[in-house]
Amino acid sequence: MNTPAPAVEARQLIKTYPGDVTALSGMDVTVEPGTVFGLLGPNGAGKSTTVKILTTLARPDSGTATVAGHDVLRHPDRVRRAIGVVAQKSGADPVATGRENLQLQGRLYGLRGAALRRRVDELLARFHLADAAGRQVKGYSGGMQRRLDVALGLVHRPEVLFLDEPTTGLDPEARTAMWDEITRLAGDEGLTILLTTHYLEEADRLAERIAIVDRGRVVVEGTPDALKGELRGDAVHMELREAVGDSGRTSLKDSLSALPGVHEVLFDGRRISVRAEDGAAAVPALLGALERVGVGVAAATVARPSLDDVYLRYAGRRYADAEAAADSAESTESTENLALAGGA
Ligand code: ADP
Question: Rounded CA gap, 101 and 91, in Å?
Fold first, then answer.
């Protein structure tokens, strides 16, 4: 049997922005048709840049990509007809009504008359916007606007739908509703969805396969269950009273790894994380070993493997720390921008 051609295939994408910012450093992505694929990574990892290239809004410095079988550089027009894009920033006209937005989008794709009306009604009903169809979009709640954005992306029945951070900025209730919508869409015949997210839980819930992106490339890929399953046993995290110096780490690592049922020992600032076959059973031995060498422990927690642990293992830092680092880099950038603006 022939395996179907991938719906999305990107090979070794490299993209540098002015100022020597490396956004992509060899990005590989393969998405099988009819599946939901999640690009998961902290802010600044390169997810949006990947989506921009795949949706023909940006060109890579090098590398190749096809979407729905069309080369993004050679046949961008064909790619655009085959895809729907829901960008982070809404494309809807706030002073037009929901219905008008959908009608305009439909016309852009050549729909007219009864076919256009049917498609618009279908989408309004499907995304629970029929009652609000005649209201201006600026009066919609965040969740309603987001649902309209997705409907707009689907007007022309694309083969591949790109959802860039579909739930960022939504309250928890609207986020759960959006997750249900995406799950329903995924059941649609043949639709392939590539979504980007920085929410671990979102990727875990929605995507059949996940690629974890860090610093412009994929560090590991697989189904959420397989990725978590690779990490045998439980995670035990211990918060130390003070950080251990480099020299102490090596011997500590050796002595902790030697404990029965303990596999991996990772240091991360004042935190030590280990894998243990039975986390609760390992804690007393771990605490005892640390106490013998005079390392004080402020807190210890045991957890089943999560995508957070997968990220730590492959990216070498905790997800929350990567997010915090990205956020502080961003705020430095905006301060610089302000300084530039002020100086101009
Ligand atoms: P993500 O979507 O994962 O948050 P992005 O693809 O937006 O990541 O960004 C990757 C890197 O490229 C970041 O360091 C970001 O600051 C930088 N970057 C993105 N867009 C631009 C741009 N237009 N100009 C300069 N740098 C950019």
Answer: 9
pLDDT tens, position by position, 159-215: 999 999 999 989 999 999 999 999 999 888 789 999 999 888 899 999 999 999 999
Establish whether domains 8-227 and 232-304 are of one fold: no
* Any ligand 1 atom below 6 A from CB of 21: yes
Query: What average pLDDT does the segment 74-99 reach?
Result: 95
Is the domain 8-227 a CATH 3.40.50.300 member?
A: yes
Average pLDDT score over the chain: 90
CATH class held by domain 232-304: alpha beta
Instruction: Provide the residue ranges of all domains of the chain, joining segments of one domain with +.
Output: 8-227, 232-304
pLDDT at 59: 97
**Among 39, 15, 11, which Cα is nearest to 25's?**
15
The residue type at 246: D
If you take atom 24 of ligand 1, which residue's CA is the nearest one?
A: 17
Structure-token pair, residue 236: 């035990």
Q: What is the pLDDT of residue 1?
A: 52
From the CB of 41, is ligand 1 less than 6 Å away? yes
